[in-house]
TrEMBL record:
Protein name: Uncharacterized protein
Species per Swiss-Prot/TrEMBL record: Umezawaea tangerina
Residues of the signal peptide: 1-19
Keywords: Signal
Length: 376
């Protein structure tokens, strides 16, 4: 009899702790609802950038004579084409790899695989929000013997930079920087700087962004037989480079996306196969503990975090389901996102609106928006 009474009491307690359908109960925070932004027909979003109070969207238009295109979305929500002029056959077929804006100045990297070895044929694009053109480069500027990759385009007070890799004089491929001489890009030597590889430390950049007068590069390095997330930082333009491993790096990891705002930077990546996020302030990096244990592999793409009222905000997919994770001094808040699905590949804040690109694959990506107030 006593056992039956105890069982009934337990059942009542369990029922009392379970939310009824449609009730609030102990459910987590409500999902964040995003609104799909319809692009002009045939446009698939790839990269995003803020241009003042406007959004720039780098898109693909497969089947057109010039595949890459740039769209400007004004404060009224209307899209207009930014005139685009290609200079090479590969430029006409390029996919956007990076898009950077400073005021009304635009800098972008495009790429399309081709040739006997199927390497990416890189293209550099410059201009303004009134028009952007590919600048013809000699083959050896980005290609040929010793060529590596281009990772990101960056504006600095000292001028525009392209960040990537190139064959090292010592071992492997150095982190490499190209600077502009008029319309020509010139690769600068990494020898004798923190960008140069050594037998003891091999660096692999994956993303870059502006931070004050300098640049912050995120990636990973192989040192002491261990793969560790790392950053490289310049004091001004392409000068004063230092390198550092990111802390609390577990057994293996990498930083794959980075963004800076208001004196701080956020880098997202993975450690031991799970999402990891670091905050870099005054040159010192801290891993933000308690991030949601979402599986992230070494081939998965991540969008850089954004700042929402002092809270580092990371959009990420967990098995195709998009979530938004926000960190402050008290820890993390994680909410489901209603609307987009698939990998989140680009995020940007424009004024009081956050935009993101998500999709299951390159051809199914779509553009979404949410008011920053909904993330507070």
């Amino acid at each position: 009899m006593r056992g039956r009474v105890l069982a009934v009491v337990v059942a009542v307690l369990v029922a009392g702790c379970t939310a009824a359908p449609g009730g609030t109960g102990s459910a987590g925070p409500a999902p964040v609802v995003l609104t799909k932004v319809e692009l002009p027909a045939g446009s698939v979003p790839v990269v995003l950038a803020a241009a003042g109070d406007a959004l720039l969207v780098g898109v693909r238009r497969d089947g057109q004579s010039v595949v890459p295109a740039l769209l400007r979305r004004g404060a009224d929500g209307a899209f207009t084409d930014v005139p685009l002029t290609a200079a090479t056959p590969y430029g006409m077929l390029a996919t956007w790899y990076s898009l950077a804006v400073d005021g009304d100045r635009v800098l972008a990297i495009g790429g399309e695989r081709g040739g006997a070895h199927g390497n990416v044929r890189w293209s550099a694009w410059t201009g303004t929000t009134a028009g952007v053109s590919e600048k013809l480069q000699g083959f050896s500027v980005f290609g040929g013997w010793g060529a590596g990759e281009l990772n990101d385009a960056v504006w600095t007070p000292a001028g525009p930079l392209l960040v990537g890799t190139w064959q090292s004089l010592k071992v492997g491929s150095d982190v490499a920087v190209w600077t502009a001489d008029g319309d020509t890009w010139v690769r600068q030597s990494s020898a004798g700087t923190a960008l140069e590889n050594t037998p003891e430390s091999l660096g692999f950049p994956l993303a870059a962004t502006t931070t004050g007068p300098g640049v912050l590069v995120a990636g990973w390095r192989l040192a002491g037989g261990k793969q560790e997330p790392a950053v490289w930082r310049s004091t001004s333009g392409n000068t004063g480079w230092t390198a550092a491993a990111l802390p609390d790096a577990g057994t293996t990891g990498a930083a794959v996306a980075v963004r800076c705002w208001d004196g701080a930077c956020g880098a997202s990546g993975w450690v031991d196969g799970k999402l990891a996020v670091w905050k870099v302030t005054d040159g010192a990096a801290t891993r933000l503990s308690g991030a949601p244990p979402i599986a992230v592999g070494d081939r998965d793409r991540l969008a850089a975090p954004v700042d929402v009222d002092g809270r580092l905000t990371q959009f990420v997919a967990d098995g195709g389901r998009v979530q938004v994770a926000q960190a402050d001094g008290a820890g993390w808040t994680v909410r489901d996102v209603s609307g987009p699905s698939g990998a989140v590949t680009a995020v940007v804040r424009v004024g009081d609106v956050v935009y993101l690109v998500a999709g299951a694959d390159d051809s199914s990506r779509t553009l979404w928006r949410v008011d920053a107030a909904a993330l507070r």
